[in-house]
Write a structure and sequence with these properties.
This protein has helices at 4-16, 24-30, 47-56; strands at residues 31-38, 44-46, 62-74, 77-87, 93-106, 109-119. The chain is of the alpha+beta class. The protein has a single domain, classed as Nuclear Transport Factor 2, Chain: A (Roll), CATH 3.10.450.50. Strands 2-1-6-5-4-3 form a 6-stranded mixed beta sheet. The chain is globular and about 45 Å long.
């Protein structure tokens, strides 16, 4: 059986993996109906805004993510934390970010209910 950390890490990375185009249907499966996000900029985003933005991207920046950890907040509710950065073509890392995601398990599987990114100094 796959561990909770592995399951949620794989789902999270699916949302920002370079070269993986996310269709609206798959994004709707991953994002809870009450999903919302506070980005590293401090802006708030609705579920529909995130789905529209991700589904319309032709290419995404290469994202490197590390130091994943998970904690159970309650029955079928988990907090996933990690650090990420964008990797530019020459290998330099930019936009270092601390990230937190709350995942809830519903009948269809795990869905992302809330996500927050906080700008960070270089983390690695």
């Amino acid at each position: 059986m796959t561990s909770l950390l592995s399951q949620l890490q794989n789902l999270e990375v699916e949302l920002h993996h370079p070269g993986v185009h996310q269709g609206r249907e798959r994004l709707a499966q991953l994002l809870h109906p009450e999903f919302h996000e506070v980005g590293r900029s401090g802006r708030a985003y609705t579920r529909e805004t995130v789905i529209s933005n991700l589904a319309s991207q032709d290419s995404k920046p290469k994202v490197r993510s590390e130091k994943f950890a998970v904690g159970e907040l309650g029955p079928e509710v988990a907090l996933l934390t990690y650090q990420s950065a964008h990797e530019v073509p020459n290998g330099v890392l930019t936009n270092h970010t601390f990230r937190s995601s709350i995942w809830v398990k519903v009948a269809a599987g795990w869905q992302l209910r809330y996500h927050q990114g906080t700008a960070a100094e270089q983390t690695w």
